[in-house]
Design brief:
Metallo-beta-lactamase, Chain A; globular; alpha/beta; Arc Repressor Mutant, subunit A; 466 residues; seven-stranded mixed beta sheet
Length: 466
C-alpha cells in the first residue's frame, strides 16, 4: 500500500460509496450538515439526521469523520488542495486499488465532491467568552476544549494548552487575535494534566516566549516521563500485546482486540514530551501567590485544579465537568498500573472522591472546566457527581450479585450494549475503577477462570446519600 494513502482500502470504499449516491441524496446530506452546531454531540446530531433523512447512521458517521480526518491531514500536509487530492486520493486509488478506480467515471467530479466535504462544518471553530476578566477560549466541535487566559498582577496566565494539530493551532491563533494578544506576551501556562488535549501547544508557547513558565504537577510530569520512556522503549510493541492479553482477560474477543491493536497500535502513545519550568505540589501558591494549586487525582493521578481565591473561581480541568463525569481509569495507558501501584494510586475512585470533598470545602462561586459549560453552582454539581458514583457502585454490585461475570459483561449491562469497540474499552476501564473501590472495601470477589477474569458480590453496595 502506498505510504501516500491517507486511509486504508475500507475508507476509500466508503468515500466512493458516498460519492456514488445520486445528486439529490448528496445535496441533502450537505444541506443537513450545514445545520451542525459545533458545541453539540456529533453522535446525537447524526442520529437525528438519520431519522430525518432515513440515511443509515453508519454512512453519515463515515461521511463526517472521513471529512474531518481528511481535512486535518490536508492542513498538516501544507500542500495546495489539487496536489493533496492527486497525491493522497487519486493516485493511491488508481495505483493500489484499480478495481475501485474503475468505479470513478470522472476524477475531477470526485475532487469537487471531496473539496465540498471539507466545508460541511467549521473544523476550525472557536469562540471567546469573557467572565469577570477571564477569557474562556472554546476550540473544536462536539468535545469542546476550553482554555482560559487572564491577567494577574500584570502577568498573562494561560490555563492549559490544547491540541498540537495545525487546524487546532489555527483556531487558537484566531482567538488570540480577537483578544489582541500574542504568544510571546503569555507569562505562565499552567497545565491541569498531561493528556494530549491539554499540553499540545506548550512547545509553541516556549518557542515564542522562552521566559514563559510552563507549570505542571510533579506526578503528572512523572507520568509524562513514563510515556516518553515507553515510546522510546524497543519493547513497546510487546507492551501493547500485553495490553491486548489483558483486554482478552476482561472479556473481549481476540479478533476484536487484534482489530483494535491494528487500528490504533501505538497511536495512543504519540505525544510530545516537554520539560516544565515549574513542578507543582498540592497547596503551592504561584503567580505572586494569587493562584492556589489543588492536587486532584482522578481523571489523571497528576491532575490539578487551580483556585483563584480573590475571585472565588476554580479552574477544574477535567476533574469536574458540567454534564458528564470524567473518565477514571488507566486501562488505555500501558505501564500506568505499575506506576499507580508504586505511588499508592490503585484505588483511584477513593482519591477522586476525597479531592471532590476538598474542593467542596473551598466554597468557590464558579467552576470553569476544561470541557463543557461553566458551572455556577459548584456545591450542587459536586454533590451530584458523588451521588452518581454511589449509584454506579450500587448498580455494579447489584449486577454481579451471586453472578460471576467479566468486566466487559458488567460494563455492557451498566453502560448499554450499543457501544463501539473503543467505547467498550473505556466502559471496561470505568467499570474496573468501581470494582477496585468495592474490592478495597471487601465488597466484591474475583477469580481467574481459563484466562478470563470474573467478578461477583454477595450483597449490593449500601449507597451513601450526600
Amino acid at each position: 500500500m502506498s505510504k501516500d494513502l491517507i486511509v486504508p482500502r475500507i475508507q476509500a470504499e466508503r468515500l466512493i460509496n458516498i460519492y456514488k449516491l445520486d445528486t439529490n441524496q448528496k445535496n441533502l446530506i450537505f444541506q443537513e450538515f450545514t445545520n451542525f452546531i459545533p458545541q453539540t454531540s456529533v453522535r446525537q446530531f447524526i442520529k437525528e439526521v438519520s431519522k430525518r433523512t432515513e440515511f443509515p447512521e453508519e454512512l453519515l458517521q463515515n461521511f463526517f469523520w472521513f471529512s474531518f480526518d481528511s481535512y486535518v491531514t490536508f492542513i498538516e500536509s501544507d500542500e495546495p488542495f489539487n496536489e493533496f487530492f492527486n497525491n493522497k486520493i487519486r493516485s493511491p486509488i488508481v495505483n493500489e486499488f484499480p478495481d475501485l478506480a474503475k468505479e470513478i467515471n470522472d476524477f475531477d467530479d470526485l475532487r469537487n465532491f471531496f473539496s465540498s466535504m471539507f466545508n460541511i462544518v467549521d473544523f476550525e471553530y472557536y469562540k471567546v467568552f469573557s467572565l469577570e476578566g477571564i477569557n474562556q477560549i472554546n476550540i473544536g466541535f462536539s468535545n469542546i476544549v476550553s482554555l482560559y487566559l487572564f491577567t494577574v498582577k500584570g502577568k498573562n496566565v494561560l490555563i492549559d494548552a490544547g491540541y498540537s494539530t495545525k487546524y487546532w493551532q489555527n483556531a487558537f491563533y484566531k482567538a488570540l487575535n480577537d483578544l489582541q494578544i500574542n504568544l510571546e506576551e503569555i507569562d505562565y501556562c499552567i497545565i491541569s494534566h498531561e493528556h494530549p488535549d491539554h499540553v499540545g501547544l506548550v512547545k509553541d508557547l516556549k518557542r515564542a516566549n522562552p521566559d514563559i513558565k510552563i507549570c505542571i504537577h510533579k506526578i503528572a510530569h512523572e507520568l509524562a516521563k513514563l510515556r516518553k520512556k515507553l515510546i522510546e522503549n524497543t519493547n513497546l510493541e510487546e507492551k501493547i500485546k500485553e495490553r491486548g492479553q489483558l483486554l482478552i482477560s476482561y472479556g473481549l474477543k481476540k479478533e476484536e482486540v487484534d482489530l483494535m491493536l491494528k487500528r490504533f497500535g501505538t497511536g495512543g502513545m504519540r505525544f510530545e514530551y516537554f520539560e516544565p519550568d515549574l513542578l507543582l505540589n498540592n497547596d503551592d501558591r504561584i503567580v505572586d501567590g494569587e493562584l492556589q494549586i489543588i492536587h486532584s487525582p482522578g481523571h489523571s493521578v497528576g491532575h490539578i485544579c487551580i483556585y483563584y481565591p480573590k475571585k472565588g473561581i476554580l479552574f477544574s480541568g477535567d476533574h469536574i465537568l458540567s454534564k458528564i463525569t470524567p473518565h477514571l481509569g488507566t486501562l488505555v495507558i500501558p505501564g500506568a498500573e505499575e506506576f499507580n501501584k508504586k505511588n499508592n494510586y490503585e484505588n483511584i475512585l477513593e482519591h477522586y472522591l476525597r479531592s471532590l470533598d476538598r474542593i467542596d470545602e473551598l466554597n468557590s462561586r464558579i467552576i470553569l472546566p476544561g470541557h463543557e459549560q461553566i458551572i455556577f453552582f459548584p456545591h450542587e454539581r459536586i454533590t451530584a457527581i458523588k451521588n452518581h458514583h454511589q449509584n454506579r457502585l450500587y448498580e455494579i454490585s447489584k449486577i454481579i450479585q451471586n453472578n460471576p461475570i467479566t468486566p466487559l459483561q458488567i460494563a455492557l449491562h451498566h453502560f448499554g450494549d450499543d457501544l463501539d469497540l473503543m467505547n467498550q474499552i473505556l466502559a471496561i476501564s470505568e467499570t474496573l475503577v468501581h470494582l477496585d473501590y468495592l474490592e478495597f472495601q471487601n465488597k466484591v470477589y474475583k477469580t481467574l477462570k481459563d484466562g478470563i477474569l470474573l467478578y461477583w458480590s454477595e450483597n449490593p453496595w449500601e449507597k451513601i446519600e450526600y
